Write a sequence for this structure.
């Protein structure tokens, strides 16, 4: 077996879909080919050998491949209208907020959420963000909390200077990092890491098979307290339509509320 054959690559894709929900139909073919090459090189074996092991559902090989096949497209202050909406909601919450950032990649999203909370005047309120991802490699980058220009290109300059001091490489300020806890978590197979007031899972579901995306959405909603909010990417809102959530329009964004 070689990773160049369409049938072989499809079997690798099916194995990843079963284990992690990733969908070949979402344009991941190239990511899988490159991931197989990178992971195999790291393991000291041929890509074809790794492809065979993955197709046989070898757990170690699946985890080695997912570290190189995930799509880490993220940056600070993505969808700022949603951050503004969450800030407006946060202002009305007297107690501490528990927030789940699901599929947090290399950390730009949960740190953006923390910045938004601080900008909303919630320093010292006891807010906590649990940020999870399936990739240990990306979680390690998130914990390093050091970013270059590309990651902060959309972050307003005043916020960048305040919360990510530095020049070429900027490190997230302690007051931001203290709000975020990173954990390894597989959205497809693992139970929710707690019960939350807000669950943020943006631009993650688009990489899942449709039935898997529906299951993950259900789990996210079940992890919310009554009245809790779910935040997904704008293009993912239609996926949540069958869940019977209340659509809340705030600051130009749509949030989804669990009523009970």
């Amino acid at each position: 077996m070689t990773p160049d054959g369409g049938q072989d690559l499809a079997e690798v894709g099916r194995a990843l879909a079963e284990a992690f929900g990733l969908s070949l139909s979402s344009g991941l073919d190239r990511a899988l080919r490159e991931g197989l090459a990178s992971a195999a090189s790291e393991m000291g074996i041929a890509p074809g050998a790794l492809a065979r092991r993955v197709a046989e559902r070898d757990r170690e090989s699946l985890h080695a491949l997912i570290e190189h096949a995930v799509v880490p497209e993220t940056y600070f202050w993505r969808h700022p209208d949603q951050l503004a909406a969450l800030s407006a909601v946060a202002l009305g919450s007297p107690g501490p907020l528990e927030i789940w950032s699901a599929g947090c990649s290399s950390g730009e999203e949960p740190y953006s959420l923390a910045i938004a909370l601080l900008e909303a005047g919630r320093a010292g309120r006891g807010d906590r963000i649990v940020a999870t991802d399936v990739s240990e490699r990306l979680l390690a980058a998130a914990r390093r909390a050091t970013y270059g220009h590309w990651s902060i290109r959309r972050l307003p300059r005043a916020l960048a200077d305040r919360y990510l001091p530095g020049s070429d490489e900027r490190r997230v300020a302690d007051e931001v990092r203290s709000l975020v806890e990173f954990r390894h978590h597989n959205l497809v197979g693992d139970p929710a890491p707690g019960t939350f007031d807000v669950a943020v899972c943006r631009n993650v579901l688009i990489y899942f098979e449709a039935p898997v995306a529906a299951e993950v959405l259900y789990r996210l909603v079940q992890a919310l307290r009554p009245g809790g909010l779910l935040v997904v990417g704008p293009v993912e809102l239609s996926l949540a339509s069958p869940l019977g959530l209340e659509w809340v329009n705030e600051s130009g964004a749509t949030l989804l509320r669990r009523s009970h």
